[in-house]
Amino acid sequence: MTAPLCYNYPWHALPDSLYPRVAREYLDYGVDTFVFSDPLIKACIADPERLSFLRCFTRRMGVKFVATHSPFGSTYDLNIPEAERRPIMLKDHVRAMEISAEFGAKTYTMHVGAYHHCTKHIPVQDLRPNAIASLEYLLPYAEKLGIVIAVENSFEPTNSAKEVYDLVKQFDSSPAIGVCYDTGHAHFMAPYPWKKREKYASYQNNSWWENGIIEEANALETLQDYVVTTHIHDNTGYSDLHSMPFDGTIDWDELMPKLFNCPRVLEHQTEINFSDGSGWAGQALAPTGGYSIKSQVETFRKLGFN
């Protein structure tokens, strides 16, 4: 049986009055499971009234937030080095996991971290102990809450499939550790014969300042035994566009059976950027006006989800 699909949506960009309307549209398509995004979970940590609003909203509409993307970035990633920030970061992650568990979330996706390597030029080996220490602290809380921390592969040296595998494997005696397999990030890093190095987005070259870009074949094969959730989106192989499946160059007919057969997978997640135009990742592949809920639901059903 296919693991359930959780839909991402930019709830944080809506006024409260529109939450029921968006939920109603999804419900009319038979969709009631969603992802706690980074901005949404951070708002709940910071503001008890926001948390209360979401409790009332989910009860009233009969929808569920059953997967969480943790707060991330330069002040929240697992490997941040600032001694004064780390206790606050860890406390916030514990609170975010508590909220996630309250809402019934099974997974809590986290980034190892790229900011301090890519912009501060701190070597990978100097940041790695911070990520290990963070997981040592957080895993007992995750175990108690019955939630799995899913470490996500990305497209920087600190988040490569190999780096994620080596990190997670150190804790594989815990039931609360796993991997979030990101399809777009893996595709971005894959050494396809049609790729031309000069076409990579500039931030990719900047990220690999130490030894140049090291492309990574077979990311899913490396991580598959630990995959508990996925982020599903597409791109052209050259930038992290978070496009709708079939708009980029991923071979979905080949990939989806492999994702469905990961032995530990608990759920899958959509992770498309709904917006059109140009953003930090490059020119979006979305049509004018961005992606619709209708196109999102229909596309993911084409991938094999109910």
Folded structure, characterized:
The longest helix has 22 residues, at 124-145. The chain has one domain: Alpha-Beta Barrel (TIM Barrel), CATH 3.20.20. α7 (161-169) links the parallel β5 (148-152) and β6 (177-182). It starts with a strand and ends with a helix. α2 (38-46) crosses α3 (48-61) and α2 (38-46) crosses α4 (86-102). It has helices at residues 19-28, 38-46, 48-61, 86-102, 115-118, 124-145, 161-169, 183-189, 202-207, 219-223, 252-260, 293-302, and strands at 5-6, 33-36, 64-69, 107-111, 148-152, 177-182, 227-232, 268-270, 278-279, 282-283. It is built from twelve helices and ten strands. The strands form two sheets. An eight-stranded parallel β-sheet has the order 1-8-7-6-5-4-3-2. The protein has 306 residues and is an alpha/beta fold. Helix content is 40%, strand content 13%. The radius of gyration is 18 Å and the shape is globular.
Keywords:
13% strand, eight-stranded parallel β-sheet, globular, TIM Barrel, 12 helices
